[in-house]
Amino acid sequence: MSAEIKVPTLGESVTTATVARWLKQPGEGVAADEPVVELETDKVSVEVSAPEAGVLGQHAVGEGGEVEVGALLTTVEAGTGAAPSPAAAKAPEKAAEKAPETAQEKAAEKPAARAPRAAANPSGGVNPPPRTSGPVSRPATPPADVAAHAPLPAAAKMMTERAVSAEQIGGGSGKDGRITKGDVLAFFDRPAAAPAPKPAAAAPRTDDPREERVKMTRLRKTIAGRLKEAQNTAAILTTFNEVDMSAAMAMRAEYREVFEKKHNGARLGFMSIFVRACVAGLKEFPAVNAEINGDDVIYRNFVHMGIAVGGPNGLVVPVLRDADQMGFAEIERGIAGFGKRARDGALKLDELSGGTFSITNGGIYGSLMSTPILNPPQSAILGMHKIQERPVAEKGQVVIRPMMYIALSYDHRIIDGKEAVSFLVRVKENVEDPRRLLLGI
Q1: Is the pTM of this model over 0.70?
Q2: Taking the CA of residue 216 as centre, how many other CA atoms within 13 Å lie in the half-sphere pointing to its CB?
Q3: Which residue among the candidates 145, 207, 416, 433 is catalytic per the annotation?
Q4: CATH code given to domain 143-191
């Protein structure tokens, strides 16, 4: 008996993923619920575990391959397993390279059939031609020009259905220049009058050994695309203010220990104060919590607060759902949990969607001032910054106070300047006098 390991449901609107890394090789023993492969989606990395104990079968897709939800990844066979042999370790690479051939590709291979060509191996050398007991009809591996652009399984199926060759599509965007399903779709989306492009040349190697060329991860490409989309779509404007953190720091110092004891170790930080201050401001100025949807404006009577946190693959924004119903301790526990799961790469897809307003804190990295970019489809984002002692005028006297610049970037299509500035002033007032939050004024 064998158990199949398939691509799990990846969340709303996510239909494909990339095989980022195989954690187990064919022939290795695996325990039940032990991660065997890491998938990378547009939003987050996901580990897929073995459903039962046994021996891992052959990889159906190599690293860098694109897979759809429900596609077979590998199997788990009955047994105890053993260390993978060198041949077994190379099997997924050969399986990933093998793909249906078109008539043009077969024709291109015929001259090579008379004299098998040595194939490059991963270590940089070459493998000798395969030994045979009779006439050689084909090379052991496809010629380099074919293998370099070999389509992934989903792409090969679509190419066969639509009678298109790898030469027509050109270079692929997958690992090692392999053609993905997205490349095939992009080929058919090109204007009819446009000539088919020539295969993309391999990236030139640098002569400087101090340089390193690394392919962008799927998550990083998605982050870049979304940020650029926000700039191209929204009418982004930023307004600034500064906050005297004296009262918030005094309250934190006075009640920190009592707070931690009462709430089972939850630490009292500044983020919960800012979250509560923003919630109060969003209720007073609902346009800041709204969203443009076509020709409509969606106003919300709840707050799903996005909190930007740094992870190993970039910045992600998990969401505190119904933050307007949370107290200080619940907010602090939620944010601490997000931070830990982000560092461990364990955030779930449903934790990264549905936010209505976001807060990002560049101050933890030392930023003194910045203009944050919207997180679509949200209409506003608050930027916190470093607390720094500065001289300020107070009742005719120059005094030193712990000050923080805060910035609100907003979509001017839906939020007027008066609303944006008034919202930011209300946040400032709530943080400078936290008693207002307790009294609801």
Answers
A1: no
A2: 11
A3: 416
A4: 4.10.320
